[in-house]
């Protein structure tokens, strides 16, 4: 059915172009036959020529239409809305300019130039509305906030988008941080992150399934606490979720929120701002200095010979020298050194009454 409509469209376009241009062309070629210079005859000739052309071009045209349809279905509604508004404004400008063009008493220009202006300005208007949608939204939002509250809204750097990745949602601490009010700006959950989270929640592995469901519960908790945005914006040419997050943050000027050490490094390589929850957790942990003593319970054997492992209440691992034989016991240890990275903090200690070996 679509093929039929495409052929009819080609014929109608040919008839229109034939009625407009062929009489002038015949006059230019000094063709004196009245039946050829007649508009109806010219329209029929144009329709026939374009119908024959459609026999070759119908299949490529149908494929292009279907490709465009798929792109439109995947595009976010907000993008299409602003693009359409921009295109309408462009067409209105082209319509107004056509009156000025009509003053030119030269038929080829007055017939062709309005069409060119409509196509060009309509396209430019669509691109402007599509590419500048975020700036337009921020402009209208700030203007509305200023009129409503009578105060200056927060700057773009303060209220930038915070884009959450899968790991930080499953981790759950982001909900507590959000509730404290330390995390300003708009929280954005990309649909591709939500899809990955749903796949984890539907996993056959019980551990992954539990993590996925926990992540969905955390998202619901965040949504109940503050306004969040689920964006449908995606990048079909990229399969990795991490790279999609990086590109989304680059495009919208947002900040990636994560506790994934590798994603943290990738963001830094792409000059994308990143907030690492582990860095924040490490920053607010009590400072431990070498020589300080603490009471801990040895839980298990360490990786190296004669080592024991204990944990603080905040989950910090303590590696205890000569602690292998103290498993299950509570003892006082003295801190010897502290290793702190974006992946976490590790404390090295030895029992208070054990001297270091030379």
TrEMBL record:
<feature type="transmembrane region" description="Helical">
    <location>
        <begin position="78"/>
        <end position="106"/>
    </location>
</feature>
<keyword id="KW-0378">Hydrolase</keyword>
<keyword id="KW-0812">Transmembrane</keyword>
<protein>
    <submittedName>
        <fullName>PIN/TRAM domain-containing protein</fullName>
    </submittedName>
</protein>
<keyword id="KW-0540">Nuclease</keyword>
<dbReference type="InterPro" id="IPR002792">
    <property type="entry name" value="TRAM_dom"/>
</dbReference>
<feature type="transmembrane region" description="Helical">
    <location>
        <begin position="38"/>
        <end position="57"/>
    </location>
</feature>
<dbReference type="InterPro" id="IPR029060">
    <property type="entry name" value="PIN-like_dom_sf"/>
</dbReference>
<dbReference type="Pfam" id="PF01938">
    <property type="entry name" value="TRAM"/>
</dbReference>
<feature type="transmembrane region" description="Helical">
    <location>
        <begin position="112"/>
        <end position="130"/>
    </location>
</feature>
<feature type="domain" description="TRAM">
    <location>
        <begin position="287"/>
        <end position="348"/>
    </location>
</feature>
<dbReference type="InterPro" id="IPR002716">
    <property type="entry name" value="PIN_dom"/>
</dbReference>
<dbReference type="InterPro" id="IPR052041">
    <property type="entry name" value="Nucleic_acid_metab_PIN/TRAM"/>
</dbReference>
<keyword id="KW-0472">Membrane</keyword>
<dbReference type="Pfam" id="PF01850">
    <property type="entry name" value="PIN"/>
</dbReference>
<keyword id="KW-1133">Transmembrane helix</keyword>
<feature type="transmembrane region" description="Helical">
    <location>
        <begin position="7"/>
        <end position="26"/>
    </location>
</feature>
<keyword id="KW-0460">Magnesium</keyword>
């Amino acid at each position: 059915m679509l093929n039929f409509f495409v052929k009819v469209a080609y014929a109608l376009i040919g008839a229109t172009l034939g009625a407009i241009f062929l009489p002038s062309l015949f006059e230019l070629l000094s063709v004196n036959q009245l039946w050829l210079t007649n508009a109806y005859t010219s329209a029929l000739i144009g329709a026939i020529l374009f119908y024959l052309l459609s026999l070759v071009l119908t299949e490529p045209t149908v494929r292009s239409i279907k490709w465009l349809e798929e792109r439109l279905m995947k595009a976010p509604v907000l993008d299409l809305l602003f693009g359409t508004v921009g295109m309408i404004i462009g067409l209105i400008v082209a319509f107004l300019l056509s009156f000025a063009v009509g003053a030119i008493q030269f038929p080829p220009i007055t017939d062709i130039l309005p069409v060119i202006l409509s196509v060009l300005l309509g396209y430019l208007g669509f691109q402007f509305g599509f590419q500048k949608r975020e700036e337009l939204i921020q402009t209208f939002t700030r203007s509305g906030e200023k009129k409503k509250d009578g105060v200056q809204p927060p700057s773009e750097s303060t209220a930038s988008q915070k884009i959450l990745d899968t790991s930080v949602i499953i981790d759950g601490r982001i909900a507590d941080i959000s509730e404290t009010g330390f995390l300003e700006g708009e929280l954005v959950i990309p649909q591709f992150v939500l899809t990955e989270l749903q796949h984890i929640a539907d996993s056959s592995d019980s551990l992954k399934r539990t993590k996925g469901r926990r992540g969905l519960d955390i998202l619901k908790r965040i949504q109940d606490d503050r306004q969040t945005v689920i964006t449908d914006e995606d990048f079909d040419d990229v399969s990795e979720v991490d790279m999609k997050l990086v590109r989304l943050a680059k495009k919208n000027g947002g900040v990636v929120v994560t506790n994934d050490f590798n994603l943290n490094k990738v963001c830094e390589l792409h000059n994308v701002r990143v907030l690492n929850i582990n860095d924040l957790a490490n920053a607010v942990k009590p400072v431990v200095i070498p020589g300080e003593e603490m009471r801990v319970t040895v839980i298990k054997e360490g990786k190296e010979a004669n080592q024991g492992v204990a944990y603080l209440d905040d989950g910090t691992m303590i590696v205890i020298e000569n602690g292998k034989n103290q498993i299950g016991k509570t003892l006082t240890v003295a801190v010897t050194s502290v290793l702190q990275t974006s992946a976490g903090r590790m404390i090295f200690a030895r029992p208070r009454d054990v001297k270091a070996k030379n």
